[in-house]
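Section 3.1: Structural characterization of target chains.
Under the original work plan, the team committed to producing a structural model for every single-chain target entering the pipeline before any wet-lab resources were allocated. The record below documents one such target. The sequence was received from the expression subgroup and is listed exactly as submitted; it comprises 189 residues.
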Amino acid sequence: MFEPVQGKQAVACVVAEYYFWRLILSLNLNDKKAVVAEVSAKVATAQTIVVAEYRGIQVGSLTQLRAQARAQGVYLRVLKNTLARRAVEGTKFADLAPQLTGPLIYSISEDAVAAAKVLSDFAKTNDKLVVKAGNYEGKQLDKAAVASLANIPSREVLLAQVLGMMQAPVSGFARALAALAAKKEAEAA
């Protein structure tokens, strides 16, 4: 296809490949508007957005990550950063815009913890996924804050713990009454 001319073949191949992928992968204006509208709708109801750099991850691993995200109710998507900036523009997540550089995967959830938990748990097993930043209810989160947020138990676990604490005094009182009744029966017999 390309004839070598003083070492220029490799450069010409790279340039041709770039334009080939640019033609195939570029979105037209209507597609871009649709993507921004879809992401804006998710952002409007979200409590948390976490972004991570995914450079070098294999497709099979990303498929596993997407399956985990779906199971937890997390919207996970790879977006062009300019489209993501437009989607968060004018929302409580607008402070996240300066962090949106590089190849990023966006994790958006209505649950305060789920987005951070999905990406952090996956990053523990795959070192190529690097959590970069996040935003919770308009508060900017760095990598350490996202990790702290991910360590918080889920809403269901917290509700179960609260219910257990509420039932503990009542069940203890019931056991004490049962023991007292058994003691009185033993004394009466």
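The domain at 31-152 is CATH 3.30.70.1730 (Alpha-Beta Plaits).
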